[in-house]
Design brief:
Elements: H1 3-22, E1 28-30, E2 33-35, H2 37-63
Antiparallel strand pairs: 1-2
């Protein structure tokens, strides 16, 4: 499978996870610790943006 398609799929999935966390208002539990929900949202947003950026970068280099 092409890396470009994998980055697109990962970007879409992480975007959906980010949107899902927008509805939560309580702290997130991870490894037994309570984490601020804004940190979790920010992490998923960064992951989604980086996946889409890699997709568009590969798409641009493929055209040349």
């Amino acid at each position: 499978m092409n890396n470009k398609i994998l980055f697109l799929i990962a970007g879409i999935i992480t975007s959906l996870v980010f949107i899902g966390y927008l509805a939560e208002s309580e702290p997130h539990k991870m490894f037994g610790y309570s984490i601020n929900i804004w940190i979790v949202r920010l992490a998923w947003l960064i992951i989604a943006i980086s996946n889409f950026a890699n997709y568009f970068k590969l798409k641009k280099t493929e055209k040349k």
